[in-house]
Specification:
Blueprint (H helix, E strand, L loop, with lengths): L22 E8 L5 H10 L13 E8 L2 E9 L5 E2 L2 E2 L2 H10 L2 E7 L3 H5 L1 H11 L9 E6 L13 H9 L2 E4 L6 H18 L14
Parallel strand pairs: 1-3, 1-6, 6-7, 7-8
Antiparallel strand pairs: 2-3, 4-5
The structure holds guanosine-5'-diphosphate.
């Protein structure tokens, strides 16, 4: 049984060591077990680590090339939100993360309809945390575990419909099988952020693979 300590991500440049002054902050939210940590690890290291030390409060960072600019990205993984008798649970950490973030990734698993049902409430949490509608950060909706077709519980059409109703970008991805879709989704979000908050002109810097 491979237990991969997440601290290996420290091999990658930390945002605090960055040569760039620009930091894009992303919060990843969703139900438990939908693959939030797996997606963050996949995006930051290109690897799928199926069995890793669970530590959902982690903040990870690295530098990437974004359309020719060197930017630092910080990704806040969060504990899974669940519904209990009083509504959503575990929301304090999630709310703080959303308030801190410039952009939000909402995740559900195509194998878990309850995680899909949570998304509208999570979107409401993002709206509430940012006050006015004009302050709502860019949001991307990820339908994860697309490789598990035989146990799919959320129809392929449902995700795009919900994303369109909520005004989010949508990607169906598999953290375990497909790096390029995960990379494409996170980069799309970063591009949206960069559009909203133009990057300062940068001096030329060493390229770090993205
Ligand atoms: P979190 O609680 O949302 O952070 O979920 P995790 O990242 O801990 O993932 C929960 C479980 O789902 C782990 O056993 C992962 O290996 C597995 N998992 C995550 N993403 C995928 C995926 O895309 N495909 C498959 N088959 N398993 C995945």
């Amino acid at each position: 049984r491979l237990v991969q300590n997440m601290s290996t991500i420290a091999e990658y440049p930390a945002a605090s060591d960055c040569t760039t002054s620009r930091v894009l902050k992303i919060a990843v939210i969703g139900g438990s077990g939908v693959g939030k940590t797996a997606l963050v690890v996949r995006f930051l290291t290109k690897r799928f680590i199926g069995d890793y030390e669970r530590n959902a409060g982690n903040l990870y960072s690295r530098e990437v090339q974004l359309d020719g600019d060197q930017v630092a990205i910080q990704v806040q993984d969060t504990p899974g939100v669940q519904v209990n008798a009083n509504g959503l649970s575990c929301t304090d950490h999630v709310t703080r993360s959303i308030q801190w973030a410039d952009a939000v990734v909402m995740v559900y698993s195509v194998t878990d309809h309850r995680s899909f049902d949570l998304i509208s409430q999570l979107h409401q949490l993002v709206s509430n945390a940012h006050g006015e509608r004009s302050n709502i950060p860019p949001i991307i909706l990820l339908a994860n575990k697309a490789d598990l077709l035989h146990v799919r519980r959320v129809d392929a059409q449902q995700g795009p419909l919900l994303a369109s109703a909520l005004g989010c970008f949508f990607y169906e991805v598999s953290a375990s099988e497909d790096y390029s879709q995960v990379h494409g989704a996170f980069h799309r979000l970063c591009r949206e952020l960069a559009k909203q908050q133009p990057l300062p002109s940068q001096p030329s810097v060493t390229t770090v693979g993205s």
